[in-house]
Amino acid sequence: MHFKHVMFCVLCGLFLLAPGCGPSSTPPPGKSHIILAAHDTPEGDKKLADAVCTADNAQDTINAAIANLPATGGQVTLLPGNYTLRKAALIHKNKPVSGAILINKNNVFLQGYGPSTSLFLADAQDCNVVRITGVKGVTVERLSIDANFQGQTVRNRAFESCGIRASWIHEADGEHCSDIVVRECTVRNAAGLGIMLWGSNVQAVANVLSDNQADDIELLGGPGIIRGNSVTRTSGNVDSVLGTDAADDILITQNTVTITGKGSASVGIRSWGGFSHHIITNNIVRVEKGGALRIGIDSRTTETIVNGNLLECPPETPCIVSLGDGNIVTGNIFRNAAIGYQTSPLWKDQPHENSAPEDARGVVFDNNTLLSCTLDAMSFQNHCVPLHPSVANRVEAARP
User: Fold this and answer.
1) What's the mean per-residue pLDDT of the chain?
2) Residue 390, domain extent
3) Do residues 166 and 194 make contact, with C-beta atoms less than 8 angstroms apart?
4) What domain count does the chain have?
5) Is residue 367 situated within a structural domain?
6) Is there a domain that residue 390 lies in?
7) Per-residue pLDDT tens over the stretch 281-294
8) Is 11 helix (H, G, I), strand (E, B) or coil?
9) How far is it, in rounded angstroms, from Cα 353 to Cα 378?
10) CA atoms within 13 A on the CB side of 160
11) What does the buried/exposed string (b/e) look like for 358-379 if buried means 16 or more CB atoms within 10 Å of the residue's CB?
12) pTM for the structure as a whole
């Protein structure tokens, strides 16, 4: 080949590799909407991207994109592809933050394309996949997260090994999260909780979760919403599938919990004691063959409405329904359940209390359908609960 032809080919190659001739791994600063591609995003889609993530450290490009958004916030979109994530380093107010994708800026919208945007936590990272820290106005939407529990090395760090976690670094900092939404995400195999949101106006909506090693969804603080989520447990044992801890004013509605295979849980839906004002309505909790569930609904919060729920447990292993003081329990269908006031010895190794607390308000228990259920009448009567199951509730005896 002639020398001029050789030089022409070399110069063309250098031109094609030069910055600005295609997406790099560095997101541009100042844009309010940054589009990122994975290393294996289809070539036609890569042309839309502002930057392309590397194969093994996608978090670097994603975090750079979030940091490069304007101070007022903005949107980061992850195109279809596989994003392998590793623990990223962030020091916030002299405290380390544990996570792969780190959001510490207000008004950030992080979105993917559903199951085709796959986030995988690499082995031995032992961190949250997405960590939202002390900010407001953050939405995480349509991401598919595999937190790779089997590949992690540290156990018993449920709060720092979540699929998606929103909270402060330390309560004393006063930087509470607010207006946080996690919507239409798939979260599975977290070494800790699937979705943990701590703050005000926090929402977990229309997510799909499976086989996380601690609670699949937990809200703290409040007000908040857990709505339209589907949770399936096929392996492992957890304390609570979904519910609240240290929260007031929470709506838990239209969720489906299925425990099957070798999956087990202590509680299906839980609201934590010492707090109040929950509405637990129109949920389905079902235990299928092989699954194990001790307490189907554990409504410990006071002044709580439990309405329109379906709880179905196997006849050989009935579930417990635990009701707190001041609860209004109406219009539910309970199958194979033992129902009682919170102090019932059904789930506490102690005798019945002889009398109600001085400030007890009792429980309104009316118009429920009880299929092969038992009522711990003593615990009800000791707490000033008018109980007339043959009149107020439809009761069906055990089937032959």
Assistant:
1) 85
2) 226-400
3) no
4) 1
5) yes
6) yes
7) 999 999 998 999 99
8) helix
9) 9
10) 14
11) eebbbbbbbebebbbbebbeeb
12) 0.88
